[in-house]
Amino acid sequence: MATLTSRHPFNLYYNAGEYVKICGTQDGYFPDFGHHMANEMGGVWLHPIKLLDGFWLKVTDLDRNIAVWARADGFTSESWGGSRFDYDHGLSHIPVSIERSQFAPDYEKGMVAEYEISSYGKGTTRLKLELLSRTDLRPVWYSDEIGIIPGAGETAEAITSRKVIVKDDAQDWYAMIGSDLPGVEMTVGPEIYGPELTAGKGIGISFVTECALEEKDVFRFRLFVAGSESSREACEQTYAVIERNHVSLKEQKQQLYDKLDQRAVLTIEGEDELNEQFAWVKRNNQWLVQQVDGIGRGLTAGGPTYPWWFGCDSTYALQGVLATGDHQLVRDTLNLLLEKSKEANGNGRFVHEVTTIGAVSNPGNTQETAHYIAFVWEMFLWTGDDALLREHYDYCVQGIDWLLGEMDPDGDLFPSGYGIIEIAGLNMELIDSAVYTAKALQALERMSLYLGETKRHETYQKQAEKAIRAVNDVYWSEKDSLYADAVAPISDILPKVDYMVSLAEKQGITDYREYVEGLLADAGENQKDRGWLLNKNWVIVTPMEAGIADQDKAQRALEAMRNRDFIGEYGTYLAAMYQQGTMTISTGAHAVAEAAYGHPDHALDLLRRMGKSFSRVVPGSFSEMSPDYGCVVQAWTIYALAVPVVRHFFGVQPEAQHRRVTLSPDMPQAWGNKTCTLEHLMVGDAEFDIHFESREGKRYASISNASGWTVVLDWKGERRESNEKRIEWQLEQ
C-alpha cells in the first residue's frame, strides 16, 4: 500500500482508530499544545477522555557511555492508517537505527506501538532501554460546564512488572499500560518524567531492560495501551484483546482501508497528484470518524483542534462522503446530530457543536439549520433510504418554521443570526443563511412531494421561488457585479462600524474606515434593507455553489472573483478585504461554484492551488488553513475535492429512489482527450464504473451498470438512456 514520508520533525501528526486518536510531533515526541484545553490537545485520547500525555524511549550505549531520548528524523503516513517513525541521526552516534510503528485499532479502545532496533555497529553493542509513558486522565473540553470534573490526582496499581493500571481519583476512568519488553525493572510515580515536562497531572511508568546486539541483529518489543471511560473490567478486557490480537487487529485495519480505497477510485490520465490527493482525502476522513459508546458514531470536524462533531462542517463534508460512497458514515453522523439537536433544542434548530462527552457548546448558527435541511434531500438522492428521509423530515419541517418564524421577524425569507463566518457582531441577514434557506425550501418542496404532502408542497414551492428571487434581487450589487455579504438597513450597520474597523486594523487593514464610510455614503438616507459588501467573505460564492444564482449574475460574479483580490497561491481567501487566510472550504466552495456554472477549467485551477498545500504538514493530508496551519486534517476537504470532481466534472446526478443515475459530464479542457475513470461509485445499493476515453480520434463513454439501473447520459444537450449492464456510447467524431 502507498505511503508518504516527511522530514519535518516538529510538525504534528494524527494517527487514529474510530475510538482512539494519537497526536504528537513527527519526531516522536508529545509537546504540550492546544487552546480549547490549554496544553492538553495532544497525546493519546479515548474520547471523551485522555489516556496519555505521551510515551518516549531512552537509549543508553553502555560501552560508549552515551544516553539519549530517541528523537525521530523521518515520519511516514501509512495508507492503512498507521504511522512510522525512523530514528538514526537522532541517536547521537549510537550504532543502531530504530523504527517505531504505531496504530490504533478501529474498533478497540487502545493502541499499539512496536519498536525495532537494528544494530549496524561492529561487534557487540550493549544497550539499556527505558520505555516511559505518562498518563493524564482528564475529560474533553467543555466537560466542566456540565459538571464533569476529574480528580486532583491518579492512582496506579502494578499488575505485573510490565503492566500497570491507572485510575482517576474521582471518576471511573482507567488507562492500562504495558509492554512485552523483557526484564523486571519498573518504576511508577507522579514524579517520573521523560524528556518533556508535560502539563498533565498524571503518573509516569518506566519499563527498563538491557540487551546486547551483534551487527545486523534486530530487537523488537511493543507498548500496549488500553482505556475505559466506564470501568476497570472493561479496560482490562480491552488490554487483553489488544495484547493477544495485535497482529490480527493490524490486519483488520489494513483490510478496512483496502475497502475504503476500493470505493470511488479516481484515475485521470496524467493527473497523478490529483488522483493521489483524492485517494488520501478518503483515508483522512476515516481518521476523523469518532465512536463514543452511549452517544454514537460520526465524522468529527478536524484533528487535533476540533475532534468533535459540528453541524455545518458535517453538511459540507458529508456531501463529499456521499460522493465517495461511505453512506453508512453519512447516516451515523446525521443521526447523531439529529438526536443532539432534538435533545438540546427540540424546535428544529440544528446544533453547531457537540463535544464527545455529549455536551452541546453551541446550539446552532442560523446557516446550519438551513444547510442541514438542504443536505437531507441530497442524502436521499444518493441513498434512496426512505426510512432515513422520514426520520429527518419532521425535524426539517420544524427547522424551516424556526428559520422563517423566530429567526425572520420581518418575514423577508432572510433569517437573521450568525452564518458560517462567525465574526462577533455580524449576526445579520447573511448571504449564506439566505442562500441555504432558499435551498432548504427547495429541498422541502421535493421531500413533501415525494411523501405525498400536497399542501406543504405547494407552500414550499411558492416560498422557494420567492426566496430564490429575493436572494438574486436584494443581495445583488450591480455596481460590484457581486453578491453582498449581508442585507440590513443602514441603522443596523452604523453601530457596528467601530467594531468592524477595529477588527480590520488588527489585521493590518488601515483604510477600512474609509471603505465603510464610502458604503454608508452610497446608502444615503435610505432606511430600507440593502446589500452590504462588508468584507467580501468567501460565502458570497454560495448563490453559485448552491445553483440558485441567475445565470447572468452568476457569470458576472464569477468573473469578478477571478483575480488576486479573491484568489491567492493556495486558493480562495476567507475574505477578499483581508487576503490573509485560505481554507479548503473557501477554495472548495468556489470550485463548486465555477463548475456548477460551466467553468470546469477555473474549478480545476482552484483545486490545483489547493493541492499545493497537500502534505505540507502531515504526509497525505491537507491542513485546515492553507497551506500549513490549523487542524492537520480537516473533514470538509473531501467536499472540496469530491463534489467538483464527481458531481460536476463527471456530472453524476443520482436519483437512488428511482434507481436512476444521470451523467452530465463537463470535463476540464486539459482532460478532453485523456482517459478519465471513476470506478466503484456507490449510489444506493448499486455500483457503477464510469469510463471516458478516446480511441482513433473518437470519444467514448463506457458505464458498468451491474444492477441494471437506468443510466441517462446528457452530453452537450443530447440525451441517451439505457439499463443495460454494460453501456458504451460514442460521444463525438
TrEMBL record:
Q: Which Gene3D superfamilies match?
A: 1.50.10.10
Identify the domain of life: Bacteria
Q: Where is the Alpha-L-rhamnosidase six-hairpin glycosidase domain?
A: 328-485
Query: Could you tell me which InterPro entries the record lists for this protein?
Result: 6-hairpin_glycosidase_sf (IPR008928), 6hp_glycosidase-like_sf (IPR012341), Bac_rhamnosid6H (IPR035396)
The record's Pfam families line, in alphabetical order, gives:
Bac_rhamnosid6H
Question: What is the protein named?
Answer: Glycogen debranching protein
Q: What is the lineage of its organism?
A: Bacteria, Bacillati, Bacillota, Bacilli, Bacillales
